[in-house]
Amino acid sequence: MNSLFSIKYKNFFLKIKVLGIKLDLSAYSIAFFVRSILRKYNYIAIYRILKEKNDNVVVIELNDFHGEVLPSWKYHLKKLGNKTLFLVHPKIYDENPFYNEIFNVIKIDYNYVLFLINLGFLFRYKRIIFNSDYIYERPFGGRSFLYNMIKFKYIGNILFLSHHANLTIENKGLTSSKKIITLSRAVSNKTNIHYFFPKLNSSNIATYNKLKRIIIVGNMKHISKDYKGLLLALEKLKSKKQPSFSLDLVGKIHKNLPRSDFINYHNRLNFKELHSLLTKSHFILFLLKKTEGHQYKSTDITGSFLLALNFGLIPVLEDSFQGFYELDESNSVVYNEINGISNALDEISNMSKTKYTKLQVSLSKLTKNLEKDSLRNSNI
Fold first, then answer.
1. Which CATH architecture has domain 212-369?
2. Cβ(175)–Cβ(143) below 8 Å
3. 209 Cβ neighbours under 8 A, 6+ residues apart
4. pLDDT digits over 150-191, tens only?
5. Would the CA dihedral through 378, 159, 77, 206 be positive or negative?
6. Where in the chain is the domain with CATH 3.40.50.2000?
7. Which comes out higher in pLDDT, residue 176 or 25?
8. Are 282 and 212 within 8 A, CB to CB?
9. Of 339, 345, 342, 274, the residue nearest 304 (C-alpha)
């Protein structure tokens, strides 16, 4: 029989088990808790939470990422007639994914949120939605932590948004699949998990002109990113005249990428800066490799797809990813391993405004279809 309480020391971590919940405490995490006690905004947050009406839906993000999905909850829940309160990690609050609309967004450290959960305080809300179904940061790291913590609480009003459906399915025994939502309709159709489409309600579709703007967003050093394919495509361009497109790369950039007048490099941007850049763009290059990017056509979804639909950007992708994202040559620019990214760039360079408009119309139909399905299926 497993002990309900235990303390062990291993690999510089104090491993504590309390009522079946495992915590890994390091010197860093202990220091974090001490600093957290001294932060004024946590006490302001608790005061504001106490004043909130209990007919709200509360959306919680305990990590310092996945903030790009939060505005979608605001749009989605409002359309379904709900008022929403957001409890978010301080880094997300400071990056402001809501574009200065922060009247119902509360900045709070995750340990205070977990404290309120454990006391049963959040039970009074109409619905509790976790924007991520696991916490990356220790001492609360692990996919099953939230499921373990809440399996005896909030049975009727809890929902988890899964960003890695294969990992979530492994933990389905800890909660009903009716409590889980996935960002992928393909995964939703294969499992008994509800579907959520993060709709931003953005109407800022860029004007198509002589200079086509292509954007790449994400960590270029990630194993799934085909930066070698991009390098090869850019190398081929050297022998040609100045291209009729510009390329914006946002995020961690690989050191081997070349410098050129038509390539613009950006570090991590806040949401307002990224939004501004996206509204000026026409295409978004997913840059996923066929083999190493397999998870993004089976269980996970690339954020580039969500940005494409929300900002009216024509997807540029390797052909093996088409089916998973319901994309094809009627709404995207598609290339394969043989012709590579360079052929896709050539197609964009020579694309007429008429062809671009047709792609936009088809992509818009897909967006509306996903939104309609999401509103019906998301179990809010």
1. 3-Layer(aba) Sandwich (3.40)
2. no
3. none
4. 665 555 688 889 887 666 655 555 566 778 889 999 988 887
5. negative
6. 212-369
7. 176
8. yes
9. 274
The distance from CA 59 to its chain's CA centroid, rounded to whole angstroms, is 14
Residue 101 φ/ψ, nearest 5 degrees: -90, 85
Residues composing the chain: 380
Q: Please report, for the chain, how many H helices and E strands are present, in that order.
A: 14, 16
Tell me how far apart the alpha carbons of residues 254 and 222 are, in angstroms, rounded to a whole number: 9
Pairwise CA distance, residues 58 & 50, whole Å? 13
For the residues 285-293, what does the mean pLDDT come to?
Answer: 93
| Fold of the domain built from segment(s) 39-195 | Rossmann fold (3.40.50)
Measured CA to CA, the distance from residue 314 to residue 82 in angstroms comes to 32
At residue 33's C-alpha, the angle toward residues 46 and 162, to 5°, is 70
DSSP-assigned states of every residue in 284-342: EE--B-TTTTGGGGTT---HHHHHHHHHTPEEEEEGGGHHHHT--TTTSEEE-TTTHHH
18 by Cβ neighbours in 10 Å (0-12 / 13-18 / 19+) ranks as exposed
Cα separation, 330 vs 360, in Å, equals: 9
- Report residue 299 as tokens: 């269980």
Token readout for 234 is 């850019």
> Which residue reads 């040559």 in tokens?
329
Q: What is the DSSP secondary structure assignment for residue 142, as one 8-state letter?
A: B
Q: Is the pTM of this model over 0.70?
A: yes
Could you give the residue ranges of the DSSP H alpha helices within the chain?
Answer: 27-37, 40-51, 70-79, 90-95, 110-118, 145-150, 165-170, 185-190, 227-237, 271-278, 303-311, 322-325, 340-349, 353-377
Please state the φ and ψ torsions of residue 176, each to the nearest 5 degrees: -70, 145
